[in-house]
Each structure stands twice: as structure tokens, then as C-alpha cells.
Amino acid sequence: MKMVAVITLVLVAEAVAAGSIREDVKLVVCLNGGVPGLILQRATRIASRMYAGIGIPIEWQYGARHCADGSGFLIRFADRAPMSASEGALASAKPWAGTVFDIYYMRVTERVQPSQVEHVLAHVIVHELGHMLQATGSHSDEGVMKANWTTSDYREMCKSPLEFTEHDVQLIHKGFRNWFDHGSVMPAHLAMNRAR
Question: How high is the pLDDT of residue 151?
Fold first, then answer.
């Protein structure tokens, strides 16, 4: 993972130097209730550091109204997962369907010890936002974008955040650039089809 971190820093530096990622632009993410304030504050702080590590600054807004015009991503925190949710899923993101995704907070609290909740919640936020920025539901074999985290992964999250793979970083940067260039992480022809 150290090699991935070094490669990530190089990719971020190259992207900023090339002007493909502007230092003055932040990704707006709105949070819509359902999580105790201190836990949410700590989780978003961890998530911010994880994205800052790959050159993506985040501006957190509290309340859905800040993202109502589609200028940011909206995270809805649900007490319970819907019946349609996969049995072990902690969240659901459908980047092809818009800018809103759901996190099943009660499932997070049931999955881990209370002392781990803020760390795991941060990783769930980062993971689902990663899907939104990548405009795909695909997963990596390791790291934060892994499909199913193990007990060992949960323990590691509390010590040091899981990392993005080099491929994930490239896809996230592409989505971030598309978001600010076109108002969508998807290529223009797909975004227009979604709007119809």
C-alpha cells in the first residue's frame, strides 16, 4: 500500500500541475440528518482527510437544501435499510440515477463496536462517494473500494484509513473533473440520457 500512496501523491501533483484539478474547487456534499452530531462530525473529518489525500477537497453542508439544485451530492442517512437492499449492504449508491445516495446508519452501528462507528461510517461515506464520482458500481480487490470488508478491515480502519487503489484514484479524478466541467460525473451523452 505504500507504493500506492506514493503513486497517488504523484498523480495528484501531476493533476494539479496540469490544471485538471483546481486547488480552489471543492466537492459539495450535503448531509441529511439521522446520525448523532459528534459521530457525524468525526466521520466527515476522517472522510475529508481520505479525499484530501488524493487531492479532492470536500465542503460539507448540513441539510438537503444546499444540494437541491444538483450542485453537490446528497447523503441520506436511513435508520433502516429498505426491503430491496442487499442483506449485508451498509449503503446504496446509484450514480446513473442522480446525485443522492443512502447510508443505512443502523446497519453500521449493528456491524461494529460503538468505538468503531465513526471510523466505519467515514469509510462507508468515502466508499459510496467513490462510486458516485467514478460513475460506476464496480469494486476493487483491496482498500476502501473493496466490495466486502472483513473483520480485519474494520480493525484496520480504526488505526489508519484504508487507501484507494491507483485505478480508483484515476477514476475519481476523472469524475471530479467531469463534475466541474459538465455538472455530471458521467460523460455528456450519458448525462443527457439520464435527464430525459
Answer: 95
- Relative to beta strand 100-104, strand 91-93 is antiparallel
Q: What pLDDT score does 123 carry?
A: 98
Q: Where are the domains of the chain?
A: 2-167
Q: The domain at 2-167 falls in which architecture?
A: 3-Layer(aba) Sandwich (3.40)
pTM: 0.84
What SS3 string covers the chain?
CHHHHHHHHHHHHHHHHCCCCCCCCCEEEEEECCCCHHHHHHHHHHHHHHHHCCCCCEEEEECHHHHCCCCCEEEEEECCCCCCCCCCCCEEECHHHCCEEEEEHHHHHHHCCHHHHHHHHHHHHHHHHHHHHHCCCCCECCCCCECCCCHHHHHHHHHCCCCCCHHHHHHHHHHHHHHHHHCCCCCHHHHHHHHC
pLDDT exceeds 80 at position 38: yes
Tell me the CB-side half-sphere exposure of residue 113, using CA atoms within 13 A: 7
Mean pLDDT of all residues in the chain? 84
